[in-house]
Design goal:
The complex is a heterodimer. By secondary structure, chain A is an all-alpha fold. Chain A folds into 2 domains: 49 residues, no CATH class; 230 residues, Orthogonal Bundle (MetI-like fold). Chain A is 69% helix and 1% strand. Chain A is built from 13 helices and 2 strands; from the N terminus they run αββαααααααααααα. Chain A has a two-stranded antiparallel ribbon. In chain A, a hairpin with a 6-residue loop joins strand 1 and strand 2. In chain A, helix 3 runs parallel beside helix 7 and helix 10 runs antiparallel to helix 13. The two termini of chain A are 28 Å apart. Chain B is an all-alpha fold. Chain B has 2 domains: 60 residues, no CATH class; 222 residues, Orthogonal Bundle (MetI-like fold). Helix content of chain B is 71%, strand content 0%. Chain B contains 14 helices and no strands. In chain B, helix 5 runs parallel beside helix 8 and helix 8 crosses helix 10. The radius of gyration of chain B is 26 Å and the shape is globular. Classes of the chains: A mainly alpha, B mainly alpha. Chains A and B meet through helix 1, helix 3, helix 4, helix 5 and helix 6 of A and helix 3, helix 5, helix 6, helix 7 and helix 8 of B.
Amino acid sequence: MPTPTGDIVGQKRWYWPAFAAPGLAWLVLLFLTPFYAIVATAFGRLDPIFAGPLPAWNPLEWDRGWMVQVLRELTAPTPLRGQFLRTIVYVVTSVSLCVLIGYPVAYYIARHAGRWKVLLLTLMIAPFWMSYLMRMLAWVNLLTNDPGSPGIVSRLFMLLPGVEEPINWFAGRAAPITVILGLVYGYIPFFVLPLYAALDRIDRSQLEAARDMGASPRSTFWRVTLPLSKQGILAGSVIITLPMFGDYYTPTLMSGSPSVTMIGNAIESRIHQAGQAPSGASLTFLLSVFVGVLMIYYLVSVARAAKEARA
Amino acid sequence: MSAITEAAPPIARTAPVPRSAWWRRWFTNPWGRPRFLVVWTWLYIAWTIVPVLIAVQFSFNDGRSRSTFQGFSLQWYQGIFVPGSREYDPSLWFSLENSLKIAAVTVPVATLLGVGLALGLARWRGRGSGAANFLMLFPLVTPEIVMGVSLFLIFVNLYEFIPLGLPAMIVGHITFTLSYVVIVTRGRLFAIGKEYEEAAMDLGASSAEAIRRVLLPLLLPAVFAGAFIAFAISIDDFVISAFLCIENCTTIPIKIYSAARNAGNPGLNAIATLMMVGSLLAITLAVLVQRVAIRRHEGETRSAVEDFARLEI
């Protein structure tokens, strides 16, 4: 018999927490504690002989030196600031492109696909489960400028008047375009899916109401559908923004040129570099604070939306 | 303009026909079929899928090029599996082996921990359950680079008994697949509800018996689905693996990362294709297993994919 609180009589209070305990212990030891290791390393020192990091586990021993240095690097005209600003430009451009490209797709599949819906959904979800690396590899193949056998896309561009040799997509002026293309291509499935879910959940009677009141399809879209799908746009954007800020493999795979590196590249190289681990950890810490603010904003707004839906 | 002087048509919904090219009207007529959207959507689908299909095609290339198809051949697949064949590359088999080794340990451990955690979180209503829920969600939204750096630092500085390489990679993979298993299982737990357990207990079963003989059988499909999803994301993972690997632990994604731009040949496409087929297969099984169970249980009519698209959120 359930009690008014929903508990089943005869069960000890620790009964259900006991099921969760091993998994929770794992997350505490291998997710929370490692995160603290970032903080401890960022505020720690260096081993004087091997130049390895010496984390300061005790907050009383924290040394702010590395953090101050990284913050100074981020504000003065240094390569790191360049990478930081570039990251913001790339992420904002890529997310905007994802919205522009992805919205019509999600809208069509949710609203008008009819008998094609299942097929389209399957095709829409498929890239979600293809390895990111495989999808980047596919584009590297297409864009290769190897003079012996240029990639298919490179060859298509050679059909244009004035393009005699395969364009070098991986370096020089084209490299930022290639990296942004890579980011959009890599992350857009993760944007379209939550947006689709939000659009699909919109109650059709609201659209019918708008129609009955004399709204044209265009104004129904602008004044009913779009406002109702804001939550989905937000969810999709946050979901792709978080990993994009930490991305370092896309610029490396799609270009490898130092002119397109992002903040993730700086973290990745500093963490492994002798004598630079605390500065890498400081950067990671700053990145997680930044991302954490976004994350909390998102979780709060999801919770609020869920509450509104229940009300 | 004679149209203005004429009486308004009886049905106001007929839009005035704009004086523009027929193709523009065909595309933009707001009352007709949304042809612009149709074209856009299919272009999108082609854009996301065709490049990958081309990459798959070149894994069957008879030559060494990844952009000029010279005929069908399985030589690059032989090059992975058959020692002594013409294109044999032991590093490819090695990376496949490592990926499978990691997944083989990750999947059972993550599934066990994850199902326990899901059961606990779904039923536990006391103090601390909110925080536990939050902790479980965090790995899903933490950028992989943050998790990679944090695990790297902890294995180097505190948990030195877990050496970098395969052991550390396995531990890392369990950590980030765990929450996915929880999400999948917990969703199903909510759908099942408490009624069956309560009925079993009304009929005299103990709480442990109710779980073992009633709840777990109902939950089993979701457990399998969670396991398949854990397999798929473990196989596909690059960042966590890369941060925890020092040497002799190259997995397929690490191999692709290091070889795509310089030493690339269709052998790389072949191993990437195998990886993709593996994870797509795992996901398909996950969806099907869930599907069969739900249909038997509730007789729903929505399609598996539609459910899946909703479940992902």
